[in-house]
Amino acid sequence: MSTAADATRVEEVAGRVVADHDPRRVPVQEFLGACFDAGLSWVHFPEGLGGLGLSRGLQASADAVLQAAGGPTPFWLNPIGYGMAAPTLSEHARSPELARSWLRPLATTEDIWCQLFSEPGAGSDLAGLATSAVRDGDSWVVNGQKVWTSLAHRARWALLLARTDPDQPKHKGLTYFVLDMEAPGVRTRPLRQMTGQAEFNEVFLEDARIPDEHRLGAVGDGWRVAMTTLMNERSAIGAGGTERGSGTIADALALWADRPHRRTPVLRDRLAALWTRAEAQRLTSARARRTATAGSPGPEGSVSKLVAAELNQDVYEFCMDLLGPEGTLYGSYEVRREGGRDADWRGALQQRFLRSRANTIEGGTSEVLRNVLGERVLGLPGDLRADAGKAWKDVPRG
Amino acid sequence: MADIELDTAPAEFDVTVEQQELRAAVQRFCAEQSDGAAVRRHMESDTGFDAAVWSRLGRELGVLGLAVPEELGGAGAGLVEQAIVVEELGAALLCGPVFGTIGLALPALVASSPGPLRDELVPPLVEGARTATLAAPERAGLFDPHAITVGAVHAGDGWELTGVVPQVVDAAGADVLLVAASGPEGIALFAVPGGIEQVEIDPLTTLDLTRRQATVRMREAPARLLAGADEIDAVLGHAFYAGSALLAAEQVGGAQHMLDVTVAYAKERLQFGRPIGSFQAVKHRLADMLVLVEHARSTAQHAAWALQTGSDDPFLATSIAAATCSEAYYRVAADAVQLHGGIGFTWEHEAHLYFKRAVTDAALLGGAEIHRDRIAAAVLDHVRATPGVPPVADGRA
Q: What is the CATH classification number for the domain harbouring B186?
């Protein structure tokens, strides 16, 4: 838990960083490097790894000072890196030296990170994945195909989950690695989505080699390590605006204001209902932040993610209905490789609408999240599993 | 919890140790004094509640006047604390004038100008020795002076009221009625004794037997002036805002209870050789109920906090809570009946009592639709076009 003294300390450290490295003048990588060295990248990480060993809640105090001085929001420059790779590396890297050698260039955004989890045959049932890693002396040889990998075409490093023991039940045969995306045998191909863009990639792994030193956690313990990554992913997706009327609902309100001739009483009621739901969600996030303990995000992140995803879709459906015939036009289906700041959801409304269909699929489908809420929060019994206790190699796939 | 290391005043959504103890004390009281069997006994009795239980809530627990200042005999804690109590009374479905006395009459009295009448009326209500309710027309939780049906005339040193007020909650058995009436100097709020011959209280059969209503007929009923024409808007404004916030808290309590009993049932009820909670059709509905309860809790707490601290527009804060909690309690109670299957439709099971309370609560002080309309009027109807409009593709790349 944090104290007022810790908050003051964070603000002082941040004040020194912006005084010595004015973010409006120095290159972004230099500024973010200074933040890392001062322990402001993730204040709850250990000292030397971009943190100060303080409460997670104090990150907001640091970010407030850094951004008021014109600093960037590094999450958007390296989202998988900041949101998912960093917490996993700080907790599970084999040595602090190795963690540091990955984390500093991650923090400066010199090294972009991606995540190689999902496969064509393993979506919601992630633990059933088939990509294999076979030990060969001091290294591992990896073969398989990954999919839905954002930023793979720009990434220097990847978080990889692979099967090291097909004779074990599915969760027990997995191991977690850091893969060099420039290694021989790693091939990336754009995956075009319904918006026309290629925000994601397919990644093909053919005899790609990973030194054993780049394994995170024990052999066979990959599922537990992956949980660190996934819990952080869900809470990052579900975060949302802190000001009333901010976030996706702002799009609907702005459009409503701009198209008075398209208003009807029925649309008015729909928008009022959406606005109220957005407000309930905003207050619930604020309450969760206030009552959360300082540790890692728990299942509560799944509530936020579920609601935010469905609210996004409903908001853009409303926008399309308000647009009427205009909504049936589009900008361009020309393939572009965009992401981060230029992602679909920053494009035209029609593009944001199409993109929102993925919200209830990516980062845990809404169906899986309802299972998580039911089983982990409410304590309901799990569903019957046809693959329970079976060796992975004996489970039917397809 | 965020209660341990606070060296300053609590922030919104903090839960203090005192608040946890208060909640636990009310839960214990309800378990002992108002369990399921007691609720059924009280709801089928003449007055609809047990005056002895009500008086213990006031005298022994001291939880009826938490938002009443100490100089009036209250605890001087605040609406946030009072909301915790009302939430737990709602979870237990305790029969008594929670809405009339705690929700409306006490807030109206607290907001009135100081004076001997107020000093006389408030302490016995806080102690639970007497009960009161408010007979004033409202629309969507806002005082509606155009719907006044009672007239007031001077009579000696005081006043006399004549008229009929329909559907007054908690009027049966009330010792004091706070009545809005139209007089020679405008509309004012008067205090009228309940048990006199000039005041006829006709009990109505209600959908929710745990919350009674009655028609109040006054014929030259003696009355004392509580708030004059210059004051009544502020007094009833506060009463209806506080009533809305407390009603929202009650809805949270009832919804949480319905969720809890349904989760417990889904874990123990076996069909097809397995607990029904292991079926995703059941599990997912329960997950949605959880989200509804969590949203309701956040908006209800925010409404009480906003009224207590002045940190948000009370109009919006109460409407957000009313719209969210009315819908949540109804949906959760309806789903609780559904997930219990046949037993959930029986008289014997408690689900129908909560379902009926949910219906009634959603209609008191305006339902979800009316509050959404209020929200739309505040947020949407006068919004101006700003430069922040997201781009709209026009078919020309």
A: 2.40.110.10
| Facing residue for A380 by CB, picked from B5, B283, B379 | B283
pLDDT at A293: 46
Q: Could you say which of B200, B229, B258 is where a domain stops?
A: B229
Which positions ≥6 away from A370 have C-beta within 8 Å?
Answer: A306, B280, B283, B284, B287, B288
pLDDT at A291: 73
Are A295 and A355 in contact by the 8 Å Cβ rule? The answer is: no
| B384/A284 Cβ within 8 A | no
**Given a cut of 80, is residue B397 above it in pLDDT?**
no
Nearest C-alpha of chain B: how many angstroms from A332? 6
pLDDT digits (tens, 9 = 90+) for A313-344: 999 999 999 999 999 999 989 887 765 555 67
Q: Is residue B12 part of a domain?
A: no
For the domain A227-377, what is the CATH code?
1.20.140.10
A238 pLDDT band, cuts 50/70/90, is very low
Question: A4-108: which CATH architecture?
Answer: Orthogonal Bundle (1.10)
Residue A378 and residue B290: Cβ atoms within 8 Å?
Answer: yes
Nearest to B56 by CA among B26, B11, B81: B26
Contacting residues for A369 by C-beta, under 8 A, at least 6 apart: A234, A302, A305, A306, B287
Longest CA–CA span in chain A (Å) reads 71
Of A34-38, A282-286, B304-308, B319-323, the least confident:
A282-286
- Tell me the nearest-neighbour CA distance from B296 into chain A, angstroms: 7
* Active site (catalytic) residues of A: 233
Q: Is A255 on the interface with B (CB under 8 A)?
A: yes
* Residue A254 touches chain B, beta carbons under 8 Å: yes
A373 touches chain B (CB under 8 A): yes
A residues 175-234 closer than 8 Å to B (CB): none
Domain ranges for chain A = 4-108, 113-223, 227-377
Query: By three-state DSSP, how is residue A263 classified?
Result: coil
Query: Residue A367 and residue B7: Cβ atoms within 8 Å?
Result: no
State the complex-level ipTM: 0.94
- Helical segments of chain B, H only: 17-33, 36-43, 51-56, 79-92, 106-111, 116-127, 232-268, 280-309, 314-340, 351-363, 368-379
pLDDT tens profile B163-180: 999 999 999 999 999 999
Average confidence (pLDDT) over B73-77: 92
In total, chain B counts a number of residues equal to 397
Query: Are residue B255 and residue B331 in the same domain, yes or no?
Result: yes
Does B139 lie in the same domain as B39? no
Domain A113-223 architecture: Beta Barrel (2.40)
Q: Which domain holds residue B95?
A: 17-131
Residue B2: list chain A partners with CB under 8 A: 290-291
Flag if B298 and A269 touch (Cβ within 8 Å). Answer: no
pLDDT of residue A340: 52
Residues B106-164: pLDDT tens digits? 999 999 999 999 999 999 999 999 999 999 999 989 999 999 999 999 999 999 999 99
